[in-house]
Specification:
Largest sheet: none
Strand content: under 5%
Oligomer: single chain
Low-confidence stretches: 1-10
């Protein structure tokens, strides 16, 4: 027999065993409820699901039975102990029926307090320990409450600050929204002015280029600056002051008698003075140009 056939036979036997256990479990459960098991189709999926439920139910039922048996055993022991204690109390004359009503009430109150404190006896030490434990718990609760109040106060303060900040942001947003239209108008004005300024810049650059071409055409050089021209004009004024008397003297010679020799000497002397003045002017100009360089 092949491995696949062996596996199918084993699986069939396993399904049959599960179906038997499931049927037994369903019958016991419905019988406990006073009903009959309904008819349904036993598929592999339904059998697997019901088998898991049956296994879980049986394990929990077994655990519940163990716990119930333990509780019944404890109840039996408690009843036996209560009977012994009742017998002892009756022997010493402290039966419940013979005690005053106020004593019975006090004992019941004491028992209720013991149950409330979760203690198993009525010893004073047990009550003191339980009260101390409750006091410690109360202190812990008060500390937690104080911390919670402090945290709540801090959170409330944060919330108030957040609300104030939100209000401020809303007010700022509203103001910004109101300023949008004027700002847009100003931006449009700036764009228009920028276009005009760009046009002016191109115009000025063109004029600068034209002026530069004119200066190049007339032979302008950077050495001929405004300061040099002003200095040359001042020297020219000084030379005019120097040559003016000479020119006045030359004009006065026009009224001299026609003595050719004296006139020639006078003219030669004035030519020498004029040449010296021209030489002085040339030296001054060369000195001014050299200083500007």
């Amino acid at each position: 027999m092949s491995d696949s056939n062996k596996a199918s036979v084993t699986e069939s036997k396993s399904d049959a065993s599960k179906i038997s256990e499931v049927k037994t479990w369903l019958a016991s459960q419905f019988e406990a409820a006073g009903k009959e098991v309904p008819e349904f189709e036993y598929t592999h999926r339904s059998i697997s699901h019901l088998y898991n439920l049956a296994t879980l139910s049986q394990s929990k039922t077994h655990a519940a039975n163990i716990l119930a048996n333990d509780f019944r055993l404890k109840a039996t022991e408690y009843r036996a102990q209560a009977a012994r204690i009742r017998e002892l109390l009756e022997n010493v004359g402290l039966a419940q029926e013979s005690l005053p009503s106020n004593v019975v009430g006090s004992v019941q109150v004491l028992a209720n307090v013991a149950n409330l404190l979760n203690i198993r006896d009525t010893e004073l030490s047990s009550y003191l320990v339980a009260m101390g434990d409750i006091s410690l718990r109360k202190t812990g609760v008060e500390e937690k409450r104080a911390k919670a109040q402090k945290d709540s106060k801090i959170l409330l303060d944060y919330t108030r600050k957040a609300i104030a900040r939100l209000t401020y942001l809303k007010r700022t947003l509203a103001q910004l929204e109101d300023d949008v239209a004027p700002c847009e108008a100003q931006m449009e004005n700036w764009k228009t002015n920028l276009a005009v300024m760009a046009s002016k810049e191109r115009q000025y650059l063109q004029q600068y280029s034209n002026y530069k071409a004119v200066l190049n055409r007339v032979g302008y050089t950077p050495e001929i600056s405004h300061g040099v021209l002003v200095e040359m004009a001042e020297h020219r004024k000084e030379l005019e002051k120097i040559t003016k008397p000479i020119m006045d003297t030359l004009r006065s010679y026009q009224d001299l008698p026609p003595d050719k020799a004296l006139a020639a000497l006078a003219i030669e002397d004035k030519k020498r003075q004029y040449a010296a003045a021209e030489k002085y002017l040339g030296d001054v100009l060369q000195s001014a140009l050299a200083t500007s360089d």
